[in-house]
Amino acid sequence: MDMFISQDGGPGSMDKFPVDLEGRAHTYIKHEINLAPGQHHHFIKSLVFDVLGYEALILVEAASLTHPQAIEMLHGLLTLSVNTTTVGLVSINDLDNSLFIDEAAFNAGSLRVSIETGHLWAYGMHVSRYNAIKPRLQKYYDVIKGKDYRTLDAPPLRDAVQGLLRAEGMPDNIPLSQDSFLVHSLLKAGYTQRLTTLLRLLRPLGWHGAFQQGEHTLHKLFGRHMYEGEVTRPAFVVEPGSQEEQTLKEVCTQRLHRLYNHFLGREADEGALNSYLSAFVVSRLNGVELVHNLLSSEEHKAYMRARMVEGFPEEQDKAQGQRVQGPQAVIGGLHLASLQVTSPKDSSPQEGASRQSSPQQDSQQQQEQQQQELRPTVISWKGGGVQKRSSVAVVYMCFERADLVRQAFPAVLLSTGVEEVDIIISQDGGPNSMAKFPVDLEGKPHTYIRHGVNLAPGQHHYVIKSLVFDVLGYEVLILVEEDSLIHRQAIQMIRELLVLSMTDATVGIVSINDLDNSMFIDEAAFNAGGLRVHIETGHLWGYGMHVSRYNAIKPRLQKYYDVIKGKDYRTLDAPPLRDAVQGLLRAEGMPDNIPLSQDSFLVHSLHRTGYIHRITTVLRLLRPLGWHGLHFQQSEHAFYKLFGRYVYEGEITRPAFVVEPGSQEEQTLKEVCTQRLHRLYKHFLGREADEGALKSYLSAFIANRLNGVELMHVVLGSDEHSEYVRVSMASGFPDGRKMQEQGVQVALAAPAAQG
């Protein structure tokens, strides 16, 4: 074969070809001007077929790393196709379905598919096909010649190309590129099919360029894998109804069941299986996307959560006769038996038993005395439309997102002990504010404040604290933001943790954990646990504060309020407001590169006053709903990929306690986390976690800086995981082999939708 290098010209072009060809025969063409893809492709075909008289063209784009035998395969497929009347071109498959294919048997195989199926990253074409559509290609060239091809999807060039499509009897809503016009020209000429390789014999590298997206996005859609073995026989076509097609379907079915068993604990249902097989044999199944969909499904998350507690099937044989049946817990809507963990005092709750004392309390009497300080006192006090019945105010902050309020606020009303606190709804005002509060309070005592103007978060938070502590004289503020769907005992937990914090001069606030690390925690033993962590650790989506802490930082909060008062808070990160707030930070001895929000200023004010810690719940007792709004301007998928959707749904079975550094509870927490990290690695990578990673995870975990959701995504997105799945899909996963030997099928129903 003769090798040509056709390099487009123009200001952005490479000065010289960057690869040493080591004396190999080739022709190098560097165009003087920038042809852009449309004219460049037309030029190549005209040069190869019209000027130089070649019989076949094999084209490889710059961003395609091809298999050593890819060109040989295209040549072989061209030979098979030339005498057919329906095949217009041959191509390397752009999709990676190798997980579902016996690579040893089908490395030389191809499928006869629709001419429009797949990208033309590497393809072959015979001169007879070119001649059949040459007049059409010339018309496309005449329309785009001399135009800025980057404006292809905008008028006037878009309108001109769409006019050509209509004139040629093609749909005008198809992509307008030269490749799209090529395949539709072949289709109009009667070439309705292409041959495409079964295996992907190239690795796509072009995550930047025409795709205009990140590397992660491209490889999430197309994957990185290409077949790296040898093509061991001449090219052949898997014909419909043939024995080869039957074998292909049988292997695909077996491996789809294997994949489902590994990730969902059950076989693929018949409807999904039929859909997958139909798409597979016409090269429209994207195996990479299928795996991503399974891994991001709620069913997979529920299965993983259950198996992280009980062990995966490959572990269960070892555990027979050794495992002690633990107490029942409700996890993710499923009733599961948790592993029994023994602490110095057996604190595992018995089913139906009353809540027991915490080993962290000096005595039951001391705990009751501390709780009495925050217990409500009924006071006949009225003023400004507020009836004060308690020393604890629970404030629900909201503004405009009625959809979130409808989901989240009923959980506040249904909270345990809600009758012992005063509920205040503080709704920000302004043009976008909700016309009325969208939840029926069913006659429950509450105070509803709708502000006359738009305070925005900065002033709104300040007004709430000043109202609760300075005006109304409450001892405790518990604040819940509108986009937090809280656990029914979350408010109770905050109250109890506040009691514990009053004897610790370093704790400024208590909060609900914003991170979900439940996979690595024995929820039965630690559902009432708190961690003493750095004051700045985590969002303040649900938190509690005592009046003594407020009074200690009140002058600082007043200064922040004075700076932002009357300003457009949406411009907080732009001058002049940004500069003013940063000036205040420097004046108060705080770093000026921290977030400028009111929550950030609050925790740094506490830190400067000596309150260097917060107590945060071990488990996440809220579900974050706020993927849209002021702080998170991103898609729902991106938000939940970072934070996850899970909230602990079981019962909090004992009084709140703090896991003290060096305690037996901390040791137990670490041991369970270690066991489950190994379990996670074993299931997804086929090995245990290495010592360095383990130490790093544990340090972050105990300081509440480990994001279990993010860790899962990192493991699942790793090349090591992809390779492990690829190998195991062929040989069988350890759990699959064990189940096959025992004749067992593990089934786990998906939990009912929550919220």
What does this molecule look like?
The structure is a single chain. The protein has 755 residues and is α/β, with parallel strands linked by helices. The protein folds into 3 domains: 61-238, Spore Coat Polysaccharide Biosynthesis Protein SpsA, Chain A (Alpha-Beta Complex), CATH 3.90.550; 243-275 and 284-338 and 717-755, no CATH class; 364-675, Spore Coat Polysaccharide Biosynthesis Protein SpsA, Chain A (Alpha-Beta Complex), CATH 3.90.550. It is 41% helix and 15% strand. The chain contains 26 helices and 25 strands. Strands 17-16-15-18-22-20-23-21-25 form a 9-stranded mixed beta sheet, with helices on both faces. Helix 4 (127-144) packs across helix 5 and helix 22 (664-685) crosses helix 23. The longest helix is centred in the middle third of the chain and has 22 residues, at 243-264. The radius of gyration is 32 Å and the shape is elongated. Mean pLDDT is 86; it is low at 317-384 and 736-755.
